[in-house]
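Subject: mismatched residue count in predicted assembly?

I count 172 residues in my input, but I want to confirm that the predicted structure covers every chain. Input:
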Amino acid sequence: MYVVAVYDVEADRTRLFLNFLRRYLTHVQNSVFEGEITDGDLEEVKGQLDSMLEPGESVIVYRMSSEQYVSRTVYGDDPTEDSQFL
Amino acid sequence: MYVVAVYDVEADRTRLFLNFLRRYLTHVQNSVFEGEITDGDLEEVKGQLDSMLEPGESVIVYRMSSEQYVSRTVYGDDPTEDSQFL
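Triage response: the counts match. Full output below for your records.
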């Protein structure tokens, strides 16, 4: 399946989520990840997120059965084309 | 169609995008909007974004032909349940 994940966490904790989610998905914008993921890996991500998140923080995961059901357009400067993009 | 829009703009300009996107979509997380939108309104949004965005800023729009193709899960505290959520 194809997912888009968006996190909203305390500024000093973004690195933690960046490093974690990067193991499963592609970092495409400041707090946005996307990519193909297996059911097993998604369960792993969910379990880990539940233990990582603190009060007031959230991650939204949008799931589509396949990438064919979503089209994606970037307006402005695509961060992934910037070599400085972490 | 159903869209998810995520913006990454300078901190002092988020209000501008928040107020603009709120006219078309539902604010669901810090820099995330989603909802049903007509082709006409999406064209309007695109045109406006192109003129609003400055170098280094971006908005990603994920389009699905219908909400039935996407399922959404919130981990942690869902911002929309927080009465303080702007």
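The mean pLDDT of chain A is 91. Marking this ticket as 'not a bug'.
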